[in-house]
Write a structure and sequence with these properties.
The protein is of the alpha+beta class and about 70 residues long. The chain has a three-stranded antiparallel beta sheet, covered by helices on one side. A hairpin with a 4-residue loop joins β1 and β2.
């Protein structure tokens, strides 16, 4: 998927022994992978599917906000 503008957070899950990729702006949008790159590839697919599903269900799609700030 080209030009993804949503922030993606990728971290290692010791419990799952996988990398987890989350998209905070898209509720429930996350994926995993055995490598960092695979988690990123998988979450790009899930972002596309998340947006397609939201369109089908007539749900709002948040505009990307860029870098999010965390405490």
């Amino acid at each position: 998927m080209k030009n993804i503008k949503y922030e993606i957070i990728i971290y290692w899950s010791e419990n799952d022994k996988l990398f987890i990729a989350e998209v905070p702006e898209l509720s429930g949008c996350k994926a995993d992978g055995v490598t960092y790159k695979k988690a990123l590839t998988n979450v790009e697919i899930v972002i596309k599917e998340w947006i397609e599903t939201a369109k089908i269900l007539n749900r709002p799609i948040p505009e990307p906000r860029g870098k999010l700030m965390y405490a």
